[in-house]
Amino acid sequence: MTTRFWHDVWIGNEPLASRFNRLYLDARPNCMVADRIIDSSFSWEWLRNPPVSCRLQHLTLELALVTLRDEDDIWRWNIEPEGVFTVRGTKTFLDDYYLPSTHTKTRWSNHVPGKANVFVWRLLLDRLPNRLNLSFHGLPIDTIFCPSCSIGGESRDHVFLFCNVAREIWHGISIWSDIRWQPFDSVNDIFVWLDSKPGSITKKSRMFCIVVSTLWWIWRLLSDTLFGSNTIKRCSILDYIRFSSYSWLKARSKFAPSWNTWITHPL
Ligand SMILES: [Zn+2]
User: Fold this and answer.
1) How far apart are the CA of 132 and the centre of ligand 1, in A?
2) What is the mean pLDDT of each run of 10 residues along the chain (267 residues)?
3) Domain locations in the chain?
4) Residues, CB-to-ion distance under 5 Å, ligand 1
């Protein structure tokens, strides 16, 4: 009950006043979190006209993920699962954060073109210009919602995993490749899963091309939807994926089967 809405760090790693400074200027600066809750949901009270902006949408989305209980506020050490500070746990956290990681974010495959490698590199670093990233960098955009479904915020993992469009495409890929794609939490998990999956180099190379091609065409389809050019037919997206992955593999490796085999049993 004593946590200040804008000035204390109670959601994320910074006070909301600094992360959402434009909204803060129009808000009651010293209100408590408890002041903002009416009937179990957040309500607003602005000093000036309520700002209608993607920043407000952004904040609303973050708050929707918070569950508050009707009890006294406590400090919690989020690094530890039990929420209690220990020197050992903190040292491990700092080592993991600062020491060089062997996680392969700069993977480069000879089986896909350079542009696809660069795309994967930016994807794994979450540096693609989706609406959420543009909003984080302060670019004035009308909305942060996904242009394909208008339901979720256009984040990397929404676009490539959770959006209905992406789910439909992965489902089609699953049927074609006869591989049960796991429900991943993050795009990075796809590549961790690919690396850990046993199999011949031929099979792994083919799977990699299919994954990269799928991600590539999901992004191209989104861009096409966003800019209204309509040059990519959604109903043909699986054909684009089959063809481009095959072309990449055929041109750059000895792992491509015949085209007829590829379109029926690629793995
Ligand atoms: Zn969507």
Assistant:
1) 12
2) 82 80 79 79 75 73 75 72 73 59 63 92 90 81 85 90 94 90 86 88 92 95 81 88 94 88 91
3) 1-99, 114-264
4) 146, 148-149, 163
